Amino acid sequence: QVRLVESGGGLVQPGGSLRLSCVGSGMFFSINTMGWYRQARGNERELVAQIISGGITNYADSVKGRFTVSRDNAKNTVFLQMNSLKPEDTAVYYCYGDYKLSRYSTTYNRVWGQGTQVTVSS
Question: Residue 108 gets which letter from DSSP?
Fold first, then answer.
């Protein structure tokens, strides 16, 4: 069983920065993509950023140039550096990872963190 735990959320003023971390624990065979979604109140969950095992990254248009996703494979950790934050970035941020749980697995299982609140307000 793999478990992901986020940290680093909080209240920040517009224009400020936050760094989210997501640490995985448990037994698995390999990881493919890791990344972050967010869900604002009343909205659907949306992809913010993802990083594939080879290092290729993808970002939502709304965060390009402001957010940076990175990972430490040795520590089963994914990060989200958020700069120039805007009120519209306010949401619960969820990390995820696509894991093969054993060498015999034929598919990846998506594991989610519990979410961390980010509030951008003056």
Answer: P
Which residues, other chains included, contact 13 with Cβ-Cβ below 8 Å and sequence gap of 6+?
Answer: 120, 121, 122
The dihedral of CA 122, 84, 81, 58: what is its sign? positive
* Half-sphere exposure (Cβ direction) of 6: Cα atoms closer than 13 Å: 27
> How close are the terminal C-alpha atoms of the chain, in Å?
40
Q: Are strands 67-72 and 91-100 parallel, antiparallel or unpaired?
A: unpaired
Residues 6+ apart with CB under 8 A from 50: 33, 34, 35, 36, 57, 58, 69
Phi, psi of 106 (to 5 degrees): -105, -10
- The residues near 36 (Cβ < 8 Å, ≥ 6 apart) are 20, 22, 47, 48, 49, 50, 69, 78, 80, 93, 94, 95, 96
pLDDT digits (tens, 9 = 90+) for 45-54: 999 999 998 8
Tens of pLDDT, residue by residue over 22-38, are 999 998 999 999 999 99
